[in-house]
Amino acid sequence: MTEPTVRELYLSPPSQAAPGTRVCGWVRSIRDSKNFAFIALSDGTHQQTLQVVAQADKLDNYKDIARQNVGAAICVTGSLVPTPERKQPFELQADSIELIGTSRADYPLQKKGHSMEFLRTIAHLRPRTNTFGAVFRIRSLAAQLVHAFFHERGFVYVHTPIITTSDAEGAGEMFRVTTLDPEHPPLDEQGRVDSSQDFFGKPASLTVSGQLNVEAFCLAMRNCYTFGPTFRAEKSYTPRHAAEFWMIEPEIAFATLKENMDLAEDFVRAITRGIMDEAKDDLEFLNKMIDNDLIARLTNVADSTFARVTYTDAIDILANSGVAFEYPIHWGVDLQTEHERYLTEKYFKRPAFVYNYPKDIKAFYMRQNDDGKTVAAADLLAPGVGELIGGSQREERIDALTNRMKELGMPVEPYKWYIDLREYGTAPHAGFGLGFERLIMYLTGMSNIRDVLPFPRTTGSAEF
Ligand code: 4AD
Ligand code: MG
Question: With DSSP H G I counted as helix, E B as strand and the rest as coil, what are the percentages for the chain, rounded to 5?
Fold first, then answer.
């Protein structure tokens, strides 16, 4: 007896009848015609369902099977038969059907289409739909491709901590981690919460980025990366921000911003190609149902070189665009989504790096350029999602780093070890952070970050 998945069946369809084939899965639909029934069976491994033919004269429990509700779990054993003359290439003619778990008539995923909003309310069931099956298979594949990309290039994978006592972005958007009694926290002489009595002996938080830690490894082992969950307590209701998201952060030593952009470009192209090679069925489905431009856009990205433009030139392009942006544009402002999308979708029509940003809108660790006004930062903007990557060359000069931290009024103590790295064999290095969910949005055409996270955590919502 063989026990293939539905995916395996579609990858190598039978050329002749194969008796003793057993397939388990969940009922998508049942069409009952008294003496026989067609069951569409899904096991979540593939876009297509398997057609099961149940015949009353062959199955003792035919009546019981034929009245099952959508969503029931069954295992079918029978003969897998090629059916080249029919809509589906083969069918499983059942010799026996085991009822593993019944479903109910009120199963929320009936045949009709559902809105994304509704499906978010049943996040425990939505992986059973075609759309979310495709999205989460692509998400899984993309994660494997990320590791393969770095592994092939000799990068060391570093597991940076989730709990931290320093704010890697210096932006104050951290979730506190504490075991103090919220009703009666211990107080110091000034009446403030006494963190020295907390679990870690000082204030601790969930990390916003593994970058600072990965820099330490990069200055020991050259090319490294981290890939893990990160957390941001920014009150944000946009379709592109989540409170818990995954980030891929490579860091390369003896390298500048240029090599950093080269790496980011190779990376995005390689993952795009990998998904196009290995997830054809799912992409075709998403192209048909979710975003008709998806495959054309990915093909364009896989084949193009990315644009590179300085922030100053980008401001000129936007100022001369003739577009009435909601947020007016002038040198010194941060780019908003509408600006990012204009640049990548309308002007360049491909992914575009914007680099050398004003230092006042960027993080403390970025390397100052000689003009005294800008830092060696580069964001990658991508069609459909806007900012996909944020990266920079790091400030490796100790005086420049500590002066900048002083200017920004940052405490030195939590960053002592980070500054230390500039004392002991400092070297130019650079890296970037790519928001994994933004990548999945771009790869699937899904327009809301809530629909590429298995169980999204966003402002005001942490269900499931
Ligand atoms: O630009 P960010 O804040 O950069 C950093 O965190 C650096 N430490 C990265 C580095 O240089 N190692 O974030 C990097 C990327 C963004 O470009 C975006 O794709 C994603 O992370 N991102 C978010 N994704 C989902 N929800 C959020 N709230 C996000 N904030 C950032
Ligand atoms: Mg950024």
Answer: 35, 25, 40
